[in-house]
Amino acid sequence: MADTTERRVDHSALRTNQAFIIGLLVLGFVLNAPALVMFVAAVMLVGTLFPQAGLFKRIYQHVLKPAGIVRPDVKLDHPEPHLFAQLVGGLVLLVATLAFAAGSSTLGWGLSWLVVALAALNLFAGVCVGCLMYYQLHRLGVPGFVHAPVARS
To answer: For 84-130, what is the HEC assignment?
Structure first.
């Protein structure tokens, strides 16, 4: 059954989040600083568990938007698929962090670049692979995945 509850999501906040993720992970790679991967993983996981505490979204909300640097882009949407996508990315970066700790920097950077690629696909092409995963799980009737895609008119 499709969820018809009307809700809105500011996609500028999502894009700001993606830009920070990409920028910090690329910087971490350039500086060979796995600590930045761990930091981004922590920000993503905390922001998933406590959406109002998401650091990059708070920077958008309290600095970039009020300064007029980034304008709101509020759309009819569900936040849960985006939070699921962030959870998946955060977990991948957590595994990358564990790989670094185990001495496997190749695996750690490979997983980090996977997150960069998926965040870039979303930022630049508007394709949220984690959201697609969420909606597929909804379609399959997996418990907890209660929202169908919002019909666009």
So the answer is: HHHHHHHHHHHHHHHHHHCCCHHHHHHHHHHHHHHHHHHHHHCCCHH
CA distance 153 to 141: 25
**Domain boundaries, position 119:** 8-139
Domain count for the chain: 1
**Does residue 116 fall inside a structural domain?**
yes
The reply to whether 15 falls in a domain is yes
Interhelix angle for 105-125 vs 129-139, to 10°?
80
pLDDT tens figures, 42-77: 999 999 999 999 999 999 999 999 999 999 999 999
pTM score of the predicted model = 0.93
Distance CA 61, CA 101 (A): 34
Tell me the two tokens of residue 117.
Answer: 């690629």
Residue 152 lies in a domain: no
